[in-house]
Specification:
This protein is 20% helix and 35% strand. It is built from 7 helices and 18 strands. Helix 3 runs antiparallel to helix 4 (94-102). The longest helix has 11 residues, at 41-51.
């Protein structure tokens, strides 16, 4: 089962389920936060889907980021490829990234508040003061206030590699700015996902209508489990409306590549779909 937040043709924002190509608005829960607070979100989703069988074509609604009050957090250096990329950015910081990759404690940072999230079809941005910019395609966990993984969506953690490479303390500026976080298009509940180690992630970047970069990875390459990341995120932190957590990237374009205005970014994850954004 999948969930979505949309704007209908009459301009009303609704939360509901996506099934068989149709969007089925819920009467309750009205938001993702309501669903995450429920004792059994999957059962509640099934009940609402049965109670609202007459959906509208999913193509007739505007897809919004599937969040409301949730913060969006991110984990770094969870794949070996990401560790190597961070070391390539800054030789002086290589030992720090190596330690993060192998340490018990992961790198965690707040990526965006919900109102900063960009939907599928929306425009992401590259910093005007950054010269080496890339998307980072990431499986994103949808987590309840009780720190249970309820579902999964797709995240694009836009990053300025030159800014982070100049000094690791500049990571917030490299990672957190207007248009740096895209989420969507839907949330797949846990029962609807294939076994995670078998799930593939594909990144395609188009420029002038042609592929400029393509890369793939799979979740079996992650050095940390989603459950371990959630456990660390929940240490000394509470999330009364739930939280989203990007789990790091295993796809890094070559050093010579940087995003340009009008590039189109497609991130596809098995069991979820495709998040598509254009660079503003």
């Amino acid at each position: 089962m999948q969930l979505a937040k949309v704007r209908t043709a009459d301009g009303i924002i609704r939360f509901g389920a996506v099934a068989h190509g149709k969007f089925h608005a819920f009467s309750w829960p009205g938001t993702l936060g309501d669903l995450l607070a429920a004792p059994n979100p999957e059962t509640l989703t099934a009940e609402q889907l049965a109670a609202n069988p007459n959906g509208v074509p999913f193509t007739d609604v505007t897809i919004l980021p599937p969040v409301d009050k949730q913060e969006i957090w991110a984990a770094g250096v969870t794949y070996k490829r990401s560790k190597l990329a961070r070391e390539e950015e800054s030789a002086g910081a290589a030992s720090f990234y190596d330690k993060v990759y192998s340490a018990d404690r992961p790198e965690l940072f707040m990526k965006a508040s919900s109102w900063r999230a960009v939907p599928t079809g929306g425009k992401v941005r590259i910093r005007a003061d950054g010269k080496w910019n890339v998307p980072e395609p990431e499986l994103t966990l949808v987590i309840s206030p009780a720190l249970k993984i309820v579902g999964y969506t797709i995240g694009n953690d836009m990053s300025s590699r030159d800014i982070e490479g100049e000094n690791p303390l500049y990571l917030p500026q490299a990672k957190i700015y207007d248009g740096s976080c895209a989420i969507g298009p839907v949330i797949t509940l846990v029962s609807g996902m294939p076994p995670l180690p078998e799930v593939s992630i594909k990144l395609t970047i188009e420029r002038d209508g042609k592929p400029a970069f393509e890369g793939t990875t799979n979740l079996g390459m992650m050095a940390r489990t989603p459950e371990a990341l959630v456990e660390w995120l929940g240490k000394e932190m509470s999330f009364p409306d739930g939280v989203l957590l990007m789990t790091g990237t295993g796809i890094v374009p070559p050093d010579a590549f940087t995003l340009a205005s009008s590039d189109v970014i497609h991130i596809t994850i098995d069991g979820i779909g495709t998040l598509t954004n254009t660079v503003a």
